Amino acid sequence: MNRREPLGIAVIGAGRMGADHVRRIDRTIGGARVAAVADVDADRAEAVAADIEGCTAHTDPAAAMTAPGVDAVLVASPGPAHEATLLAAFEHDLPVLCEKPLTPDAASALRVMEAEQALGHRRVQVGFMRRYDAEYVRLKALLDSGQLGRPLMLHNRHRNVASPAFFTSAMLITDSVAHEVDATRWLLGHEIRAVTVLRPAASAGAPEGLRDPQFVVLETDGGALSDVEIFVNCGFGYQVQAEAVCERGTARIGDGHALVTHTAGRWGGTIAQDWSERFAQAYDDEVRAWVDGIRRGEVTGPSTWDGYAAAAVCEAGVRALEGGGRVEVDLVDKPDLYR
Ligand code: NAD
Predict the structure, then answer these.
(1) N or C: which end of the chain has fewer CB within 10 A?
(2) 46-52: long-range contacts at Cβ-Cβ below 8 A with a sequence spacing of 24 or more?
(3) By C-alpha distance, which of 1, 2, 9, 4 is closest to 291?
(4) Ligand 1, from 20, 77, 133, 167: best to mutate by most atoms within 8 Å of Cβ?
(5) Helices (H), strands (E): how many in the chain?
(6) CA of 247 to the centre of ligand 1 (A)
């Protein structure tokens, strides 16, 4: 790649997230351009590519990766399609930003990790964008400073207005709590060793048969507990909150108090309605950091190891949800590439 030229990106998957990333690369991120778009739905690929000068549309992800001017790949297809796309990107030794989940289960994540190790260098950044959210970044810096002492507990709340029609009870863990799994590992610097899922009465506001809400308890190898209330049909807004309880104090983020009004005998504010609004800054900074890193010749951010660990914890979480009880997480030894 000529470093004075913008980085050419092939975006794989032109659905909600993919189209948002295309817009972000085209209008918000400097130093990059969308060179190709691939979607199994040809109309969708063409509609997204049509707005961008010089961008080609494809139905085959591998063809998009070899299109003229492609230097890197952003994967925003559904999780089950990620493994094949990542392995194809490795064949061309292209850097990849892969939306979470890396893959839907630990075995496929391990295969991806082995293929990346065979290349001998990191190629993947996983799209755990909370690591780029300004509030999470401040919380991490405070915990790392040691000012509050050791973190002992993390209380997380993750609420959505309504779940999509295809959402299953297991997806509350694999699609939603996956973010808290990564945030817990990253904030505390611990691995998660066991998962318990408690199931309160399902909300009448949830679709028939969906176990919503759920209460998940993550035990870490550093002796901390991280609990997650996941409630994907709360009806009133999108909320992601985290409170760290440390030896000498607590720290809390996600209250959404950016603007508080006082009028007519009442006070209040607004609640974001979805993730694209709440985490807009995080997505921008995530993609910007990925692009800047590649232009410097580096791949940074959440790694394939992080994607694998999250997949293994979520798999244990689904077993805990289905069978009840506490399920231990079995991780392979961390390869040197990710140390
Ligand atoms: P979506 O269903 O809106 O879009 C997926 C698109 O991929 C569709 O257009 C579909 O036709 C296409 N597709 C399916 N299989 C494909 C394949 N093999 N190759 C190329 N294209 C294929 O889904 P979405 O909500 O945009 O989610 C996409 C990814 O982004 C998922 O991995 C999801 O978990 C992730 N996501 C992450 C966040 C976040 O907060 N980081 C938020 C939403 C979605």
Answers:
(1) C
(2) 47/14, 48/11, 48/14, 48/18, 48/19, 48/22, 51/26, 52/22, 52/26
(3) 9
(4) 77
(5) 11, 15
(6) 41
Where residue 258 falls among pLDDT bands split at 50, 70, 90? confident
Q: Which of 175, 157, 158 is nearest to 166 (CA)?
A: 175
pLDDT tens per residue, range 206-255: 999 999 999 999 999 999 999 999 999 999 999 999 999 999 999 999 99
- Signed CA dihedral, 193, 199, 204, 209: sign only: positive
The upper half-sphere exposure of residue 22, i.e. CA atoms within 13 Å in the direction of its Cβ, equals 30
Instruction: Report pLDDT digits (tens) over 302-332.
Output: 999 999 999 999 999 999 999 989 999 999 9
Which uninterrupted H or E stretch holds 251?
A: strand 249-253
Please, what are the domains in the chain? 7-130+281-303 (3.40.50.720), 134-274+310-338 (3.30.360.10)
Which of 12, 46, 75, 99 has the most ligand 1 atoms within 8 A of CB, as the residue to mutate? 99
The predicted model scores a pTM of 0.96
Length of the chain, in residues: 339
Q: Residue for token digits 């209040």?
A: 268
Strands 96-99 and 72-75: parallel
CA gap 127, 335 in Å, rounded = 21
Sign of the CA dihedral with 285 first, then 291, 295, and 296 last: positive
* Dihedral sign of CA atoms 258, 263, 266, 270 in order: negative
Between CA 169 and CA 77 the distance in angstroms is 21
The single-letter code of the amino acid at 311 is A
* 102-130 confidence digits (pLDDT tens): 999 999 999 999 999 999 999 999 999 99
Ligand 1 proximal residues by C-beta, below 6 Å: 12-18, 38-41, 44, 61, 76-79, 81, 99-100, 127, 129, 175, 275
